[in-house]
Write a structure and sequence with these properties.
Elements (H helix, E strand, L loop, with lengths): L2 H12 L35 H4 L18 E5 L4 E4 L2 H10 L5 E7 L10 E3 L15
Antiparallel strand pairs: 1-2, 1-3, 3-4
Length: 136
Amino acid sequence: MNRRDLLKMSLASTGLVATTAHAQPSCATDGTPAQFIPKKAADPRPAENDLERFPKCPYCGMDRRPFHHSRMLLQYSDDLPDGVCSLHCAAISLAVNVDREPKSIWVADNASNAGIKPLIGVDRATFLIGSRIKGW
């Protein structure tokens, strides 16, 4: 049983039922609660030119270009993309969009020597969190 089915069962047993999320109207600024639903149109190939297409994190407003080494990109099963700045904001995206199934998740490849770190699938990445070891 996957975690979403388990969560749905536990919510159903308490009388709380998750409903389908609907995109909120866009506003002039990023980072507001109305913007927590992915606001970009469905895209089957969101990883191409992701920094130009998703310049700011919708959850904290951070510019993803200078911090390209920590960025992540999530694509949900309905092809809605969500370009975020970090593992923390990716966790927020997954928590807020619990009714959407993740299709693909990409992370920056810090092992690459490229000036702008390329994206790789999360299944090929290794994470080291909370270490005092300096990054690449």
